[in-house]
Amino acid sequence: MTGAADIAPAPDPPRLRRDLHRIFRAGLSAADPAPILARRLGGSARAGWTLGDSALLPPAPAGDSALRPSAGAGDPVFLFGAGKAAAALGRAVARGLEGETLSGRIIVKRGHGEDVPGVRIEEAAHPVPDEASVAATRRLVDDLRQVPRGARILFLLTGGASALLVAPAPGIRFAEKARTNELLLASGADIHEINTVRKHLSAVKGGQLMPLVAGRRAAVLVISDVVGDDLTSIGSGPVTPDPTTFREAVAVLHRYRLDPEVPDAVRKRLEAGAAGHIAETPSDARSAPPHHILASNRQSLDAAAAEATELGYRTLVFGRDLTGEVGATARAFAARLAELAADAGPSALLAGGELTLRVTGDGRGGRAQEFALVVARELDGTARAAVLAAGTDGSDGPTDAAGAVVDGGSWRRASELGLDPAAALARNDSWTVFQRTGELLRTGPTGTNVMDLMVGLTPGR
Asked: In the chain, N or C terminus with fewer CB closer than 10 Å?
């Protein structure tokens, strides 16, 4: 895996930029599944595996000989799953379950694959699904159906699974579902709203894989990329009871005025479901396997804050589980950092969450890079402040960068290079600006995915 230690700062960075990289690395390390499972996974095949103080898998029902714990390597543990960090999580599981034979299939974003012994790793597109997503999901579901009763299954779920685990509902073509996904991503809808629609256009999301793990000793390992660690939203909850409804999906289209833009088949299916003509997604919690959340944004934010304190900064948390619009939040973050720059001592301002970027232009970038460009504008001329904004998965939007690192001179440097940063901001073209200024943060796949981190530093007066 390309991990936190592989982030390379720019040559001879000033202290603030160097410290920003160290703080971000600390946040990534706290969400790395390998050390987390090394600490928490225990037991054995014969005695049963544990995760912390809990059983990893549910116990076999009394009197059901088919569900007895496995006695050894001849009885495989099946790993299924999807998400940007699912292969890294699978590899960590393989190391932890030493001596077990593994089998299964995992779907990841292209470029995020890792070798997991005995498990087939498939790569597909993200954030907009492609035909590879559909074909890989079909094979995963077929494999899942073949798992014998009584077998042990670990379902690995990380951010990005919604776009990678793709099986259009009956009557919906892949191109129609993909077009709807594109419209939702560009609309400004939050992840919960997007997933509400996705679930009702899918044959696997919203708990629809629960029947396929019934009768097995199954559990779900989760790296959370959603605010509040809502299991129904992580990967659109394929093995989690779904509380959302067709009516709510229709309301999302209304709210963002997408009714006339989505394909007719999509609109008709959602309206038919809202009228009660199509069965709702499964909502019975009694049939759900246990879920274990291994890592979340809060862990990363806490670790980043601890590192900032260790480096000598007075540390303040601007916000946890942040939501809202990128521009407004970035302006408020920059204003607070400017206030801290007037204080006597060095200060660190940190935030974590998943903001919403409404895409209205045709440029390249993501929500973290746009956050950084707005901050650069707001801090223009403020010499004593620097900010890092990045996605913890290493890919911010459909770009090759995790985010960007800026300071009070970034906006001016862009102009001196002949760029128009204001016009770029209007086009959602932050990547082009930072590519020219050399301020993109490129980490490669990090092996985790716990939303975004934003860190601002100032030495004070």
From this structure: C
